[in-house]
């Protein structure tokens, strides 16, 4: 068993695609219409284009518990998921120059350095640099 795709609910797929590719540096991988103006829209890491895909999944507005869960996580500042980086301070500086908003700048939490950003699509995303 292995992870192939991880879904992140996004409020606007096109806005999410621009943010994840233009700001975070992912590559668009799949873009397949699936009805009701929704798409099977995935991005992959430039460093690992054959690795796991991130599905930019339309936020489930018609499923109230899921919609409220996403909003509650965001209000509480809890990241929906995390991405590993090799140089968190460098990524933080690069993304700040790109206009990305952070709710937590790089912080030492013992075994890792973490930072939390707003993906502009309803989620906080945690960046993690593991210590050796």
What does this structure look like?
Residues 2-130 form the VOC domain. The chain has helices at 13-23, 64-76, 88-97; strands at residues 5-10, 27-35, 38-44, 53-58, 79-84, 102-108, 112-118, 124-130. The protein is α/β, with parallel strands linked by helices. It has a single domain, classed as 2,3-Dihydroxybiphenyl 1,2-Dioxygenase, domain 1. The chain has a four-stranded mixed β-sheet, with helices on one face. The chain has a four-stranded mixed β-sheet with strand order 5-8-7-6. The longest helix is centred in the middle third of the chain and has 13 residues, at 64-76. The radius of gyration is 15 Å and the shape is globular. The mean pLDDT is 95.
Short description:
With 132 residues, this protein is an alpha/beta fold. It has three helices and eight strands, in the order βαβββαβαβββ.
Characteristic key phrases:
single chain, 132 residues, alpha/beta, 2,3-Dihydroxybiphenyl 1,2-Dioxygenase, domain 1, four-stranded mixed beta sheet, 3 helices, globular
């Amino acid at each position: 068993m292995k992870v192939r795709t991880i879904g992140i609910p996004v409020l606007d797929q096109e806005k999410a695609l621009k943010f994840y590719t233009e700001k975070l540096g992912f590559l668009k991988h799949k873009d397949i219409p699936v009805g009701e103006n929704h798409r099977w829209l995935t991005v992959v890491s430039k460093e690992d284009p054959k690795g796991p895909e991130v599905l930019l999944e339309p936020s489930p507005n018609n499923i109230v518990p899921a919609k409220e869960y996403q909003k509650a996580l965001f209000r509480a500042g809890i990241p929906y998921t995390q991405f590993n980086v090799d140089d968190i301070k460098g990524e933080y500086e690069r993304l700040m120059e790109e206009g990305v908003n952070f709710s937590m700048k790089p912080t030492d939490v013992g075994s890792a350095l973490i930072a939390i950003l707003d993906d502009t699509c309803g989620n906080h995303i945690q960046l993690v640099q593991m210590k050796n």
